Amino acid sequence: MKELIASILSAAVARAHASGKLNSASVTVTIEAPKDPAHGDAASNVALTMARGEGKPPRAIATVIKDHLATPPEIAEVSIAGPGFINFRMAPEYWHGELRRAAADGACFVRPQIGHGKSVQVEFLSANPTGPLTVGHGRNAVLGDTLARLFEATGYRVTREYYFNDGGRQMKLLGASVRVRYLQELGREAELPEDGYQGEYIREIAKSLIERHRDSLAETTDLEVFRTAAVDAIMTEIRKTCDGLGVRFDNFTNERDLMTPQAAETRSRVDAVLEQLRQHDLLADYDGATWLRGEPLGLPKDAVLVRSGPDREPTYRTPDIAYHIDKLKRGFDLIIDVFGADHIAEHQQVIAALKALGYDVATIRAIIYQFVTLTRAGEKVKMSTRKATYVTLDELVEEVGKDVVRFFFLFRKHDSHLDFDLDLAKRQAPENPVFYVQYAHARLASVFREAEKAGLVLPVETLAANPQAVDLTRLSAEEIELAKRAIGLSEVVAGAVESLEPHRIPFYLLDMAGEFHRYYNKAANRIINPDDPGLSQARLFLAKVMRDSIAGGLELLGVSAPDRM
RNA sequence: GCGCCCGUAGCUCAACUGGACAGAGCAUCAGACUUCGGAUCUGAGGGUUGGGGGUUCAAAUCCCUCCGGGCGCGCCA
After folding, report:
1. pTM of the model
2. Which of A288, A486, A524, A556 has an alpha carbon within 20 to 30 A of A542's alpha carbon?
């Protein structure tokens, strides 16, 4: 539709120019969907943008363009409105055609194929295995997973990747904490290190070690067995939590592999990066450490890449640079990094370093989300990781269910704070947007059950062969509006993918559900009408597309579309 | 102090990337059930988009500047 209108507008401008009515021979035309349906199905602001160059009022230019338009039959009406918009209204027949096409596609029409096989890597969650996933991790997991789903659905080749570190300083601390709990369980004197992990899960891991090894580890000073046990147990839990949320990964990349030479390598990739940075004069050595120089990168401060001390351990930052080089070398068309606002500074450092090393970072796009708070009974729930008073993601899913967790995490723009209202989340009432949307789907499903009972079966199978089997001219203007809404999801999905803004979909579904409920509630709109099978079939046809649209949209979000609730 | 994000109805948030009179839900008030599932619907009130300047035919959106909030500014990740 937009392409069609844009082309006839361009042609009109060219024609007006040829007849001497306009100075410009060509102009870039943008078409948008008006907010207000009274303004038609599409609008163009060409006349407004041309006003300056033409030296004429926008409405006068709009009139000239309109007079030179060659309007095809799909377009029912062209009008000039407001400051000089040119509005277009499509003919009902056009929408009948669109509706037929959507019905033939089933739920596929909500999946516009815009990826053309391009490759995308989505790196998300990337939580180190130091403890159970928290509510904050949940936003990351759902956001990343949904972006991946959207890319997959729109024709991209997607790699979902989890980057983590099971070695290093924090992991030693984790191992030490498990060892202390292990000794304590055996009744021996032991005390947690100062920054040790206090969570109850550490004790659980210690107990499982006692089950397997009795007291045979009591004299071991090597922390490795404790660390490994902890990492295995926690990683298993993280995977379980993700499963419960419908979140999955293709790759788990371990930071340690970047720090140790792999098969054909003579040195680790981290060492290679340090060498490269040194060649570009981006390193500085002082205070016994090796620093990434801030000044040549336009960063406010130097940042430590290799710690001082006998071990000369790299900081997290160094392998992260190596990891991003690795990602770039793998040749993805698009690389998405999903992370919380607290990691912005690090990401800037990584990107700046990559740029300075001559890499093209244009394919990397960061999606940075703000923090999550929980509200219960009108009060903020206090959460502290250190004290282990946080609410785990498992607890949240347990309390409100997968569908609600996913929908709520997506029901906000990512750079906006997210206040998760537990009371609202648990309410099975219209004010809960998840149930409102799901209920619309259940109602539609119920209509089809009733239709079957009434012997009114929609001949969907034969429609492809005989598209005129259902007379869509029976649909009212209100019903055509509903059809536009259902079909329009396709464009919203495309926009959500291009802008990396999945939240647009749940908002759109909520609007669609509302329109449907309002329509459904009017007695005159009864879909099943035994006295008028023709009308019933036309309405069932529309109902099918609405149902496919809602189900297809929810599926993209990883939220179920129940037939009964 | 410096960097990034945010400030929109009493509350929680949208606004298709600069378009038409800024929209939803909750809350408040007033209504609709012999239902293809009322887990629904109808109506009302509620705004100088934090303040001030600028750019533009057009600003919640872009620029500057104040005010207020969040996050970061670790040899933690």
Report:
1. 0.94
2. A556
